[in-house]
Amino acid sequence: DADVTQTPRNRITKTGKRIMLECSQTKGHDRMYWYRQDPGLGLRLIYYSFDVKDINKGEISDGYSVSRQAQAKFSLSLESAIPNQTALYFCATSDSGLAEETQYFGPGTRLLVL
Amino acid sequence: AQSVTQPDIHITVSEGASLELRCNYSYGATPYLFWYVQSPGQGLQLLLKYFSGDTLVQGIKGFEAEFKRSQSSFNLRKPSVHWSDAAEYFCAVGPPSGDMRFGAGTRLTVKP
Predict the structure, then answer these.
(1) In chain A, whose CA is at the least distance from the CA of B104?
(2) Residue of chain B whose Cα is closest to the Cα of A2
């Protein structure tokens, strides 16, 4: 089984709808991240969480919210989806206990907003 | 502010030829540097990382990268490219716990 899983893998929704993307990990890492990937722009950080009670905004948090339901689960919500939120979304995790802390990525969720 | 520039959007090399992908960064302190690879339809896989010490870093799949502080560069190299190396490559600068910045990516095509 994959260490970092994302559901759904693909999603089509309409403008104005609320949707949630979910991320689960079995790596036992304390830190989790949400990124979006757009062609020509690389990955940009949306939100990150150092533990269940610690949520931080990233570079592009407007229009998004997150919930850290447990150490292993981190969800990203689009309260009212808009077409420019069409992108590939990645969840990542890292272990703060390691001297060379490194982020590990899930397989991605491809979102299309019509 | 920290940032990463990958000057080459797309590179084509022949199978068996050598490869160098360029990465330049801007960072206020000693940087944490990473190279990730993304195969079609896949997530990002870590190739290698630099935190400190030896400036020549070895990674998986035969890749290496050299940190050059004077040039603010962290170029990725491979002596002989295989067809399976065709993918998109991303350079990133840390810290890994939070505001890590990625380059726009370099797409590698391998000719038979």
Answers:
(1) A42
(2) B43
pLDDT tens per residue, range B61-85: 999 999 999 999 999 999 999 999 9
Assess contact for A114 and A12: CB atoms under 8 A: yes
pLDDT at A1: 54
Interchain CB distance below 8 Å, A42 and B9: no
Q: Is residue B51 within 8 angstroms of chain A, CB to CB?
A: yes
CB contact under 8 A, A4 and B44: no
Contacts with B73 (C-beta within 8 Å, 6 or more apart), sequence order: B22, B23, B24, B25, B66, B67
Burial of residue A10, with CB atoms counted within 10 A of its CB: 0-12 exposed, 13-18 middle, 19 or more buried? exposed
Q: How many residues does chain B have?
A: 112
